[in-house]
Amino acid sequence: MRLRTRLALISLLILLVPLAIWQLVHSLERSLRESYQANLVDTARSVAGRLAQSDYAWPSPGGLYVHPAERGFAIDGRRAEWEPWLDFAQRLGHETEDTPGASVIAAERGRRLHLLVDVEDERLVLADPENGAGDRLMLGIAADGRDSTVEIIPLAPGWLEVASRDGLARVQAALQPTERGWLLELVVVEPAQPDAVDLAVTDVDDDGTRAAAGATRKRGFRPLIRRSPQMASALEGLLPANARGWLVNPQGWVLAGSAVRAPGEADGGETGSELLTTLAAGLLGALPRARDERELESARLVGDEIGDRPAAVWYQAGQGTGFVVSAAAPLTGPDGRLGHVVIERPADRFVSAAYRALLQLFVVALLGMLVVAAVTIQFGVGLSRRIRRLKRAAEDAVSPDGRVRGALRISGGADELSELGRDLAAMIDRQQEHQEHLQALASRLSHELRTPLAMIRTSLDNLSEVEDEAARERYRIRAEAGCRRLQNTFDAMSQAARIEASLTEEPLTTLDLGKLVDHYVQGCRQTFGTHRFAATVPTTRPARIRASGEQVAQLLDKLVENAVDFTPTGGQITLRVVPQGPSISLQVDNPGSRLPENLRSGQLFDSMTASRQSGDERSHLGLGLHIVRLIAGRHGASCRAVDRPDGVRFQVDFPRAAASGPRQDPL
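Now predict its structure.
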């Protein structure tokens, strides 16, 4: 099995195991949450239906909520004792540009109603016995079917007591200025436990005229909304075990609140697994948003679940130590919407089954991943050992200065690392061949340059010593021949450089190699009259390749010139075009001597590698076959030389060009 396949399988196992477990547990947890949520919504809907059929006196909308107070009040005009309810202040009346902004908080201790009125006023104007009234509060009180009005007109900050003109109502109050207006705290002494109140603030800004600059007034009495013990008792009888419930009016003010604890449940009975619950929910991506936990004595409830339809939400307790599910259902009577029923239950115990399953699956997954990790580590250690061995073998084969010191020894194997080792060994072998070629190149080039230089030098020396014109002409001709030989050497070297630089400039087109070779052979018969030429090309189907015609002609020139040099006079040189599967082979066969034993087939195409022994004055640097390899590489072809019984074959394999249209076989 290949190394890549092994790594892919191991990686797939490592990724699939935790992913499958996470998906399974996540699906289980979501299913349980939805089931629990639907169950609690059904319970809230059932409780709302039962309460809607009762004959309780439901408070009218727009009333003033009365907070139950556990401690008494000191009437001093300060907010300290009202701190728990400051966030529940209700706006007083309708505010415009000409009316002061005011809010009111109501609380009840025993049967006494306490009010805290906070007025936003740029300037506090107090009453003056000579000039008249200043800023003031009108308080209407209704009780037992009768109503009375008390006008509170403070002369100075501090305590005051005021009674109504009809003597039915009496209040005690205290006024204190604030940074943004003034604060009035009061208690209704008589009558006890009113049913409704009517409040209006009059603002005076001009000391001279004492004219009212604005008044906050809402017509009619505002009913007082109080918690109902009867509703709380009825709600408690309808709640499921270990749940808390509230009955709220349409504005969210709590009319009743009750809690039912499961039998035998101690305080905080469901918080034992809160930490596990939170961690597991975070792992599953099901961690809800955190919000402050509702108290049973809360004055007002708001939330996403309180709306026109029954709904439920999950939230995390304020300290992040557990989940709570809250469900709400609208409560509708004959006259319209009466309020909502809100029920909450802790969810930690319910989802503990999912998280216990998560823990068990996590342990199993951990063991499985440990096994996979052990296999992976063992595999990695073995792989690392093999890589280190390959590295040491490469360092032993090649010296730090890049010289090859010996062959690279590679052990057998069928994976990619073994293939890499074999490719590396082959590359080092080629580097060694190139190294040997460079070493021979210096002596070859030295020989090619030394001979013409010697001819020139001796000819010049002899020219200075002889006076015979015939001898001087002979030495001049010999020196000129040496110069031509040097020039031929430099021309051959520059030709290879020019061809290599210009290979990419010629565009490639689709051409028929058979036709090109056939025409080329006809030209060879006229150029080389001392040799015979033959061409064998396909006749039934064109041999199409993607190539540059001029560059292929240069390649043929070098191959034919090489064949002519080694073919005896009168011998036949044969050029063939042979389709072979996905490639088209160009073959040049010539009779004559076989390939030299000291040169491999690939070395023949290196630069400055020559094996011919010529008696002429031409320099043979071995650049012709090197140019053949350059042109073949430009066309994605490969070249090689092989011995034949009667001579040598040079072969270039071109990739076959894709057919431009549907192929039709000849009849």
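The chain has three domains: 8-56+228-262+272-355, 64-225, 506-655.
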